[in-house]
């Protein structure tokens, strides 16, 4: 018996199989330095795919300032297309129809799968080009465009928009959604092949340790003063009138309470007029943004148009107690009274009353904030990227018999 030989064989057999690298085309109409949930989460996914040794081709509109992935890991292949300002969102860009260019691009360098993050003109072109070339396609459902209608006097367009989104996603091999509740809602509305892939949070960046007495003092808040806050776009679809109502209710009981808005948008002037005592910090990013979260005591998030709401998990990771409607990420992650507080979806009086209760009980607020931090620490981006990768691999596997029948070969 050759013991040494057997031991060597055992060592070799126990080694994990090498990861099969894929050629992935990722199409998105928003990406950093643009600041929004879709852009930031897509940057994390692209970075994660690079870390997992995939060859990522990122296709996006050209922006006034060049994007840099937040981790410093370069995108392997970046293709910039013509971009135009998004109506109602002048700081964002959208792509233009580009089917012919994408067909040419992918004919020369064929990807294993095309992933489309947004459903705009560039996303639609990518879907058409991929289907023309018989490429597997996956997509994200990330923005409830149809729910924005009542905020921008576009209510009559809600059904046509939903019809377009259903047509778009049902032409894909899989559509990723961030919560089980959204999966069920879309399934009821005729969406097919839905997979739940959540969102992660950077719990090292968003950390209670970043709380700064100096920053709070700049808001006029002392160590024991209560600070309510909101982070995000200052826009009608964020339901900020409810945040103001909650602040006024708390202020009636605690005159020294402070209100901080972090972000910018078309409602800033209106909010400043309605709440002249509030502090408007403007747009923040990176560690500066994390310090602003950590300086808050209660995070008020009244939006009902989110598919997820990354700000919820960022606030939780920052050790900030959250008051939100039972919707999106909050509805998925928060157990009311344990690691946050929930109001019935759309019940504004309930939201105000819940905020008033949370503001009145400091000990309970601190316990909830600690539990929120523990919840957020479990939302690791590495796990999310692995689930994302799994959906891509399933789409590729389903396409391989089609390749064989048509005499095509997957990307080498």
From TrEMBL:
<dbReference type="GO" id="GO:0016757">
    <property type="term" value="F:glycosyltransferase activity"/>
</dbReference>
<dbReference type="Pfam" id="PF13439">
    <property type="entry name" value="Glyco_transf_4"/>
</dbReference>
<protein>
    <submittedName>
        <fullName>Glycosyltransferase family 4 protein</fullName>
        <ecNumber>2.4.-.-</ecNumber>
    </submittedName>
</protein>
<keyword id="KW-0328">Glycosyltransferase</keyword>
<dbReference type="Pfam" id="PF13692">
    <property type="entry name" value="Glyco_trans_1_4"/>
</dbReference>
<dbReference type="InterPro" id="IPR028098">
    <property type="entry name" value="Glyco_trans_4-like_N"/>
</dbReference>
<feature type="domain" description="Glycosyltransferase subfamily 4-like N-terminal">
    <location>
        <begin position="35"/>
        <end position="205"/>
    </location>
</feature>
<dbReference type="InterPro" id="IPR050194">
    <property type="entry name" value="Glycosyltransferase_grp1"/>
</dbReference>
<keyword id="KW-0808">Transferase</keyword>
């Amino acid at each position: 018996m050759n013991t040494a030989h057997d031991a060597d064989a055992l060592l070799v057999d126990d080694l994990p199989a090498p990861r099969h690298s894929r050629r992935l085309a990722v199409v998105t109409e928003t990406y950093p330095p643009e600041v929004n949930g879709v852009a930031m989460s897509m940057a994390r996914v692209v970075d994660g795919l690079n870390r997992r040794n995939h060859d990522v081709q990122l296709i996006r509109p050209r922006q006034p300032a060049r994007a840099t992935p937040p981790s410093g890991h370069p995108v392997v292949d970046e293709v910039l297309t013509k971009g135009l300002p998004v109506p109602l969102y002048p700081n964002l860009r959208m792509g233009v129809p580009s089917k012919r260019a994408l067909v040419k691009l992918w004919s020369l360098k064929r990807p294993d799968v095309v992933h489309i993050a947004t459903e705009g003109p560039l996303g639609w072109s990518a879907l058409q080009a991929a289907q023309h070339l018989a490429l597997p396609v996956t997509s994200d459902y990330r923005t409830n465009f149809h729910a924005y209608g009542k905020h921008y006097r576009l209510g009559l367009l809600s059904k046509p928009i939903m019809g377009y989104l259903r047509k778009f996603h049902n032409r894909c091999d899989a559509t990723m959604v961030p919560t089980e509740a959204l999966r069920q809602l879309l399934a009821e509305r005729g969406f097919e092949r839905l997979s739940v892939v959540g969102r992660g949070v950077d719990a090292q960046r968003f950390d209670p340790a970043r709380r700064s007495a100096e920053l709070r003092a700049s808001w006029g808040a002392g160590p024991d003063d209560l600070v309510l806050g909101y982070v995000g776009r200052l826009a009608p679809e964020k339901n900020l009138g409810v945040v103001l109502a909650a602040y006024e209710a708390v202020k009636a009981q605690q005159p020294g309470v402070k209100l901080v808005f972090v972000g910018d948008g078309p409602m800033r002037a209106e909010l400043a007029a309605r709440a002249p005592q509030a502090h408007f910090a403007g747009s923040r990013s990176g560690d500066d943004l994390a310090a602003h979260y950590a300086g808050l005591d209660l995070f008020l998030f009244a939006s009902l148009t989110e598919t997820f709401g990354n700000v919820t998990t960022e606030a939780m990771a920052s050790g900030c107690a959250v008051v939100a409607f039972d919707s999106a990420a909050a509805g998925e992650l928060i157990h009311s009274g344990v690691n946050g507080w929930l109001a019935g979806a759309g019940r504004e009086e309930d939201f105000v009353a819940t905020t008033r209760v949370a503001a009145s009980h400091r000990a309970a607020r601190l316990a909830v904030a600690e539990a929120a931090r523990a919840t957020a620490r479990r939302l690791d981006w590495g796990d999310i990227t692995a689930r994302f990768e799994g959906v891509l691999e399933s789409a590729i596997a389903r396409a391989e018999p089609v390749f064989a029948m048509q005499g095509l070969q997957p990307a080498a």
